[in-house]
Amino acid sequence: MKKIFLLLLFISFGIQAQQAKFDFPLNENGQIIFTEVVAADGKAKTDLFTNSKMFFVNTYKVTQDKLKINSEASSVTDSQYSIMTVKINGSDVKVKLYYTISILSKDNKYKYEIKNILTKTEVSETPLEKLFDKTATEKAAQKPKAMETLTAYYGAINAEIENIKTNIKKEMSKANANSSEW
């Protein structure tokens, strides 16, 4: 009986330790960045460049004059935010997730980057690198409520990033976007 109790105790600590691990993709500077090169066979750079502009127009209702466009590099960049709902201490809390999206186009492929990510509530503004740094996760591991909150943030952020990635791929896969929609 004592062995079973110790085994269950060991397993529960193992599960808690696994919950404390929050994996985000990092660049060489330690910045959290979601990036992917996506094949777009048969699509010209100009069509992908137009589609990238239309992504911001259709998704965020941004006009062309607000976008950071580099025609020479066929890239479009803009800072945006989404509103996520995070369950904190049993209550739904609205949290703004700010980020910068860049889409770079080449013949038959494009690359997107989602970076400079931070959360903002009514009382705080925190970059993801700080929210999920080693110190924060170690402190949260000591306090179940803090770990629950951090886990809720992690889930909400990843769900929102997946939604953004899906929207980018959907817009970029469209046939010739019409520039006159501007």
Strand content: 25-35%
Gap from first CA to last CA: 71 Å
Mean of residue pLDDT values: 86
Helix content: 40-55%
- What structural class is derived from the secondary structure elements? alpha+beta
Compute the gyration radius: what is it?
A: 20 Å
Q: SSE order in H/E notation?
A: HEHEEEEEHHH
Number of strands: 6
Q: What does the overall shape look like?
A: elongated
Number of helices: 5
**How many strands, which pairing sense, and closed or not: the largest β-sheet?**
6 strands, antiparallel
Which ranges are low-confidence, i.e. pLDDT below 50, for 5 or more consecutive residues? 1-19
Provide a descriptive summary of the structure in words.
The chain is of the alpha+beta class and 182 residues long. The protein is 42% helix and 30% strand. It contains five helices and six strands. Strands 1, 2, 3, 4, 5 and 6 form a six-stranded antiparallel beta sheet that branches. Helix 2 crosses helix 5 and helix 4 crosses helix 5. The longest helix is centred in the last third of the chain and has 29 residues. The radius of gyration is 20 Å and the shape is elongated. The N terminus is likely disordered.
